[in-house]
Amino acid sequence: MSDIPANALLDIHTHALAGMRNIPRHFARWASVAADEDYPDADLSEEVFRAYLVNGDEALRALWSRHLTAWDFAEGPQWALAIPARTDARRTAVYDRLRFGNDLRKALDDAVPVAKIAGPTVITREFIPWYTPDRGSARSFYWASYEQKLRAKGWSDAAIASLDEASRAVVERLTDPEQPRARQAKGLVVGYVQSGKTANFTGVTAKAIDAGYRLVIVLGGTLNLLRAQTQRRLDMELIGQENILRGADITDLDSLVGVDYVGDDDADWDEFVQHGARPSVLGAFDIERLTTRDNDYKSLAQGIRALEFEKREPARPLHDPANLHHAAARVLVVKKNKSVLTKLVKDLKQIHGLLGELPALIIDDESDQASVNTLDPKKWEQGNTERTAINGLLSQLLKLLPRAQYVGYTATPFANVFIDPGDDEDIFPSDFLISLPRPSGYMGAQDFHDLDSAIPRDERTYANSQEQAHIRDIQESTGDRLQEAMDAFVLSGALKLYRADHGVDDGPFRHHTMLAHQSVRKDDHAELALCINSMWHQAGYSSAAGHERLAALWASDFAPVSEVRASDLPVPASYGELRPYVNAARQRIGSGGNPVIVVNGDSDRYFDQLNLDFDRTPHVWKILVGGTKLSRGFTVEGLTITYYRRTTRQADTLMQMGRWFGFRPGYRDLVRLYIGREEPFGRNRYADLYEAYEAICRDEETFREQLAQYAVVVDGQPQITPMQVPPLVAQHLPWIRPSARNKMFNAELVEIRSPGRPIEPASYPGSSAALKRNTERWRPLLDSLSAVPTTFSNPPDASSSLTRTFEALTGTVAHSDLVSVLSKIEWERPGHFDPHLTYLSQLDGALATVDDWLLISPRLAASTRVEARVIGSLPLSLVRRSRQAGKTSFGRIASVEHRTAAQRLIDAARSSAEDRPGESIGSRTGVALLYPVVEGDSHSDVQAVVRNGSADPAKIVMAFTLIPPASAVSADRRLVRFRAKNSRFASEATIPASSS
Fold first, then answer.
1. Burial class (CB in 10 A: 0-12, 13-18, 19+), 97
2. pLDDT in tens, 933-986
3. CA distance 645 to 479
4. Exposed e or buried b for every residue in 432-461, given b needs 16+ CB within 10 A?
5. 260-264, 400-404, 559-563: which range is least confident on average?
6. Is residue 426 within 8 Å of residue 395, measured between CB atoms?
7. Which 3-state string (H, E, C) describes 560-620?
8. 218: left (phi over 0), alpha (psi -120 to 50) or beta
9. CB 308: neighbour CB atoms within 10 A?
10. Measured between alpha carbons, how far is 55 from 568 in angstroms, rounded to an integer?
């Protein structure tokens, strides 16, 4: 190790990197300049630098982690224009500019690996870039403070860089607040349920006010409890102590009267951001709060003067830089409440000339709740747009503030996407739609469902199956399992206390909750709460019988799951070791004599009485019973056990009920979902709620995947704009209806190109006659199948350590013959396949050339195989599939193994002949998986369609999955194409329904 002290080397590196600003430069030169005055004899060799890294100098590693991660994430920098962010190639470009040698590069890669995580997906109109890196760094007081706060909370450099990138993507699409011409931008940010959307809009707010926005209105839920949560979060992490105190002396109790947090001994006051002095004294600007934690907007507390901005240059408008950057910002966090917003609109109307000069930002949390206009346009008066209360007040706010920007946040975007884009006074996200990446550590659909798992159901274990680890079915055969769920709640609480006592950070264990959601009716809530309370007092958690029951659940469930899911966390060797913590958990849950809190009121007063403020209550260890109020916007902290049996027909409602999604640090392995698999639903119908969740999660992921696919800019132009998203969604989610029923979207999706990607239509007809005609149309191609089966194999991968094989009948068909058949197929929804057929029809040389297709008809395992001739064909293996609940379309057609094998053939065709697997195809050959599908729920349903070795063609769905060759793409790489339904309205988003 060199003689240079670690603190000296850190000081030199800190100043050298600061001097580079946002661009990696020749490091040795900058380090030499930084050392010249104070450390002229310092050894600045790469060997010394590497030695400190290898020997674990954490301060030096943290410094380089921040800078390398920032360069890894930088979007389109001039110094690496063509190199994608968050890749090894980008990191190499950084090292090249720093002029680092190979040994040092390896040491830095080991110390700071490239965070290869997804960035945000952005669908956008063209915009004028104004929020450049230089401008962002020149004024960054509140963003820098927020970033520092996130580091103090334990956020990683990659997580902060990801937030930086996503919040920048929003801010740069707002209008430049210094711009002379007033312009409103409207956008939508789509996150995941309980995934940290508040962190994103806090980052957006910080950057926006740094850039010059001087009025921020946050719409924070429909209850004061939710509004106060948001207010407190902004106060703690952004606004800070000095702006809250507004000059009050913290040692003078009289001056603190009426000051929230410090005035009422908030236990977390020391955790609030501290700027060091009033920001205006530090050369920045203050933030004045027009609402507080306990007080929603009532009126301007200091009268209209509260929105009077002092101008340094009175003759110039407020948005002029000479005035803008010296003025204080105003922040309001308000409920989506008619009386509250009416007061705000009324007060703003009294301010005249200033509003036209005021750059404002409206952030709408849960923007698909209350904000969307749900009135039926057919009932409007002629020529008038009638609006619901909150939507109308939002519209008025936007009219009063011509420089206001609107950004909605939601996890369920479809209601916002289907707002009438032709209504300029509404909140359709006409400028941008941003889909946030799934954050690290988040438990979402992929953590509760075995999506696309290739592992056979009978081979799934706690280790390789999310369903096995976390899902506990409620069926007629299992009973209601409510006692077991309650036992799991006690047991998981004991395990949290055990872990906290054995060195695990107990911060995430501050609250421990169970959610019971069985109905929307308040009477049902009262009945369930009474039942749980009675069961609790009869459970005998301090008796021998109670401990015996818990010990059995520990041995059969929690111990084996934690062994394979949390091997890095402390686990008791036996239930006996856990038993003392069971008693402690029982006492916490039962404190006050009642383990249950019913959450279903409609008033703020009701929620004030609950003592359910997770921010202000030291420990909430309770079972929460409720309905809608426990869903949207309400974060149930510490949620570990969920008991869910409520049915609904609305997909977005169902998704918002998924409170079990979220961050579960230190206890992911303890999370359990008890969910109904046979719940009564209408007359003589039953719903599998777990399958319903999986279906809507797939729909949402399909939507996100499509946005990502079409977000790629081609020749400097976006392939798709926000105006074109509605018809894209409508094609795949037929259960969503546009809100403007007297209009239709003028953008029509006419072509989807899928080079090297699966095409799997699912909306097959239900009519027996149509099914028979479709089956007959496939008949000529079936003659191409060989009687000798071909064996396909998939090598070991992430899903399985084994090689998997299956047999299939195969044959080759000409491209023109396949297209001829596809062009005649009937669909349940006319035009369903047209965008794909338009693409396939051009693969005769017009767009690209496909010579032929490998037709594959897979054979099921012998134990479950039912074979039959289809209109005189060779015996084919029949397949059972079911249509999705409430839809005309099937779920998945091709099995995972079959699609994997087909995709391997397509991918291998891109490589040289010697690198291809045994069964290979040419680069101009596609793959078609063909399935004779029987719609049914059991094996007997399949057998029932076969008579004398032949299948009834009227009961067969000839379903298929196509994968065109990767070469089947045009030179411009465009993947989607739209056209105006009515050229007379070519520039319009919507047209009258009668015009078509």
1. middle
2. 999 888 899 999 999 999 999 999 999 999 999 999 887 677 877 665 555 555
3. 13
4. bbbbbbbbeebbbbebbbbeebbbeeeebe
5. 260-264
6. yes
7. HHHHHHCCCCCCCCCHHHHHHHHHHHHHHHCHHHCCEEEECCCCHHHHHHHCCCCCCCCCC
8. beta
9. 12
10. 24
DSSP 506-527: -GGGS-EEEEEE--S-HHHHHH
For residue 530, give the H/E element and its range: helix 522-538
DSSP assignment, residue 147? Answer: H
Give the whole-angstrom CA distance, residue 695 versus residue 701: 10
CA 296 to chain centre: 29
Least confident among 49-53, 528-532, 578-582, 907-911? 907-911
Report helix, strand or coil for 264. coil
Q: Exposed, middle or buried, 986 (CB in 10 Å: 0-12/13-18/19+)? A: exposed
Buried b (16+ CB within 10 A) or exposed e, 216-246: bbbbbbbbbbbbbbbbbbbbbbbbbbbbbbe
pTM for this prediction: 0.80
Q: How far apart are CA 902 and CA 423, in angstroms?
A: 46
**Helix (H/G/I), strand (E/B), else coil: 562:** helix
Nearest-CA neighbor of 406 among 185, 181, 168, 172? 185
Assign 3-class secondary structure to 615-646.
Answer: CCCCCCEEEEEECHHHCCCCCCCCEEEEEECC
Phi, psi of 148 (to 5 degrees): -65, -40
Q: Is the pLDDT of residue 593 over 70?
A: yes
Q: In whole angstroms, give the CA distance from residue 819 to residue 981.
A: 25
Q: What's the pLDDT tens digit per position in 517-553?
A: 887 677 788 889 999 999 999 999 999 999 999 999 9
Burial of 965 from C-beta contacts in 10 A (0-12 / 13-18 / 19+): buried
SS3 735: coil
Of the candidates 933, 940, 832, 930, the residue with the CA atom closest to the CA atom of residue 882: 933
| Residue in the block written with tokens 């890669």 | 109
Strand partners for 934: 880
Gap between the terminal Cα atoms of the chain: 78
DSSP string for 298-366: -S-TTGGGGG----SSTTS-TTSHHHHTTSPEEEEEE-S-HHHHHHHHHHHHT--GGGGG--EEEEEET
**Quick one: CA dihedral 588, 591, 594, 598, positive or negative?**
negative
The first and second tokens of residue 557, run together, are 């469930």
Q: Which residue has the tokens 């767009």?
A: 847
Q: How far apart are CA 427 and CA 449, in angstroms?
A: 34
Strands (E), 132-197: 186-190
Residue type, 214: R
CB neighbours of residue 252 within 10 Å: 9
Residues β-bridged to residue 745: 990
Residue 842, number of CB atoms within 10 A of its CB: 18
Contact 989, 745 (CB under 8 A): yes
Place of tokens 């109670």: 546
Q: What single DSSP character describes residue 662?
A: E
Amino acid at 143: W
**Surface-to-core class of residue 342, CB atoms within 10 Å of its CB (0-12 exposed, 13-18 middle, 19+ buried):** middle
Sign of the four-CA dihedral 835, 838, 844, 849: negative
Neighbouring C-beta atoms of residue 304, cutoff 10 Å: 13
* Phi, psi (degrees; rounded to nearest 5) at 809: -85, 135
Per the CB < 8 A criterion, the answer to whether 125 and 722 are in contact is: yes
Count CB-CB contacts under 10 A for residue 125.
Answer: 14
User: Beta strand 432-435 with 121-124: parallel, antiparallel or unpaired?
Assistant: antiparallel
DSSP 675-711: EESSEE-STT-EE-HHHHHHHHHHHHHHHHHHHHHHT
CA dihedral 400, 406, 409, 410 (to 10 degrees): 80
User: Which 3-state string (H, E, C) describes 200-211?
Assistant: HHHHHHHHHHHH
Going by the DSSP 8-state scheme, the letter that residue 459 receives in this structure is: G
220 pLDDT more than 60: yes
Element (H, E) at 216: strand 215-219
